């Protein structure tokens, strides 16, 4: 975009300032005209009109809310237009992006912004940090429209809606049994909407610093799988304690033992091959709910341990098994869920990491770490796990079906709830 207009360009700037007050100006002119007309009715006509307006606003709260929202949206438009001008996000004749719609969201405001001809929404993305400073807000997130390069969704984040919101109990905690073919509820987004994840045919990678809530988030998926008696469940826990509460609910549980991990993963590859032989024989391309073949969920906590521990030959065997399961297992009904602190290429090879279609980044220490989990470039668009308060465990960004990262707070299962659910699952599965 062009530099901020100089003195010769103040006329179009003055026009835009005046245009920003059009709502208030329209209401003022309408009021003056109405009062003049009421005055012609005789003495007290103007007072009668004012009284009538007060009564209508009092008795019709919908109208009152509409007018208040109209005035708030007008103020937001003016502040945003001023910030654009201060940050130099203007065109040759003082034109600047136009706010088409203003929505109130728990984090602040969401704006639908149209960029003038000759420019594109990428200019807003470049100026996001400067705009946040000019607006005196926490951050500004800019998301370009996938269908219109001149259109963008701008979220003005004024406060963190998760700051005063404690973790919420998992909605499925009272279920006697579940179905993993149904979307699994894992948390609430910034607007308070339920966030679900559809696991069949997908793999999920979770990353974040120690204490960010990775294991707690992973427990939600384990619980959903364990409470479905038709699901086969395999757990690998590098620390042996994070998933230990679910050990009696799983067909196989592996601790920090590389040899055992290699054996179990080898069995899973053999099962995967057998499933593909079945699909070939029945002329089908993937497992469906009616096929009678159960989903097989493989949950790995501390993925880095299994990819970097043990002797080289065993480590290579385990790494290759993970790669094979993640790359080929989807259609065979094998779902891999893995958590690690930082899935950098030194820890998790890119040819494994990039195979995970779903990503979840909890609190990270650097934008690069956040992008390592979510994918390159998301941090620069405002989807950075660095801005998450370290005290807010379970808050992160999820990249899944929608194709865009969603900031959410995961539900939480405490140790007592895990014990109850694990007992229920073990009994349901006939393992206890």
| Major sheet characteristics | 10 strands, mixed
Assign a percent range to the helix content. 25-40%
The protein's oligomeric status is single chain
Return the string of H and E elements: HHHHEEHHEEEEEHEEHEHHEHEHEEH
Q: Kindly state the mean pLDDT as a whole number?
A: 85
In DSSP terms (H or I, runs of 4 or more residues), the helix count works out at: 13
State the end-to-end distance: 67 Å
Number of domains: 2
Q: Assign the CATH topology of the largest domain.
A: Rossmann fold
The low-pLDDT segments are 1-5
The secondary structure category is alpha/beta
Rg (CA only)? 28 Å
- The CATH class name of the largest domain reads Alpha Beta
Beta-strand portion reads 15-25%
What's the architecture of the largest domain, going by CATH?
Answer: 3-Layer(aba) Sandwich
Outline the structure in words.
This protein has 432 residues and is α/β, with parallel strands linked by helices. The chain folds into 2 domains: 7-157, 2-Layer Sandwich (Threonyl-tRNA Synthetase, Chain A, domain 2); 171-429, 3-Layer(aba) Sandwich (Rossmann fold), CATH 3.40.50.300. Helices cover 39% and strands 18% of the residues. The protein is built from 13 helices and 14 strands. The chain has helices spanning 10-20, 22-39, 45-59, 61-86, 122-126, 128-135, 214-226, 258-281, 303-308, 312-328, 350-353, 367-374, 415-429; strands at 98-105, 108-114, 139-144, 151-157, 184-189, 194-197, 204-207, 232-237, 252-254, 296-301, 334-340, 358-362, 395-399, 406-410. It has a 10-stranded mixed β-sheet, with helices on both faces. A hairpin with a 6-residue loop joins strand 3 and strand 4. Helix 8 (258-281) packs parallel to helix 10. The chain is elongated and about 95 Å long. The chain starts with 9 loop residues before the first helix and ends with a helix. 38% of the residues are buried. The model is unreliable at 1-5 (pLDDT under 50).
């Amino acid at each position: 975009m062009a530099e901020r207009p100089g003195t010769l360009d103040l006329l179009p700037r003055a026009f835009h300032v005046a245009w920003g007050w059009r709502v208030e100006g329209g209401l003022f002119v309408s009021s003056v005209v109405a009062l003049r007309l009421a005055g012609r009715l005789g003495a007290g006509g103007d007072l009668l009109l004012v009284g009538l307006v007060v009564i209508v606003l009092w008795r019709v709260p919908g109208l009152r809310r509409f007018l208040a929202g109209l005035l708030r949206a007008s103020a937001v438009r003016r502040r945003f237009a001023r910030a654009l001008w201060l940050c130099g996000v203007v065109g040759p004749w003082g034109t600047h992006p136009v706010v088409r719609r203003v929505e109130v969201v728990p984090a602040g405001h969401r704006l639908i912004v149209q960029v003038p001809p000759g420019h594109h929404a990428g200019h807003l993305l470049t100026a996001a940090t400067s705009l946040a400073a000019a607006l005196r807000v926490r951050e500004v997130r800019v998301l370009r429209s996938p269908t219109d390069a001149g259109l963008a969704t701008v979220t003005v984040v004024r406060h963190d809606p998760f700051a005063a919101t404690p973790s919420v109990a998992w909605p499925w905690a009272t279920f006697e049994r579940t179905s993993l073919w149904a979307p699994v509820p894992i948390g609430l987004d910034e607007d308070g909407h339920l966030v679900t994840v559809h696991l069949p045919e997908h793999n999920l990678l979770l990353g974040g610093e120690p204490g960010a809530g990775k294991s707690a988030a992973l427990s939600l998926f384990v619980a959903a799988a364990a409470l479905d008696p038709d699901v086969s469940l395999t757990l690998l826990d590098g620390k042996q304690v994070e998933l230990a509460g679910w050990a009696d609910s799983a067909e196989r549980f592996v601790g920090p033992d590389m040899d055992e991990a290699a054996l179990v993963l080898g069995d899973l590859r053999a099962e995967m091959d057998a499933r593909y032989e079945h699909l070939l024989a029945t002329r089908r391309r993937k497992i469906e709910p009616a096929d009678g073949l159960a989903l097989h969920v493989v949950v790995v906590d501390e993925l880095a341990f299994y990819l970097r521990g043990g002797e080289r030959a065993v480590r290579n065997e385990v790494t290759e098994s993970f790669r094979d399961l993640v790359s080929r297992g989807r259609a065979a009904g094998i779902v891999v869920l893995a958590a690690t602190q930082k899935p950098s290429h030194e820890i998790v090879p890119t040819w494994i990491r990039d195979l995970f279609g779903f990503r979840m980044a909890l609190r990270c220490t650097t934008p690069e770490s956040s992008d390592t989990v979510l994918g390159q470039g998301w941090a620069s668009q405002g989807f950075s796990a660095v801005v998450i308060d370290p005290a807010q465990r379970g808050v992160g960004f999820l990249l899944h079906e929608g194709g865009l990262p969603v900031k959410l707070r995961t539900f939480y299962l405490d140790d007592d709830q895990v014990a109850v659910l694990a007992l229920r699952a073990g009994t349901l599965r006939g393992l206890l």
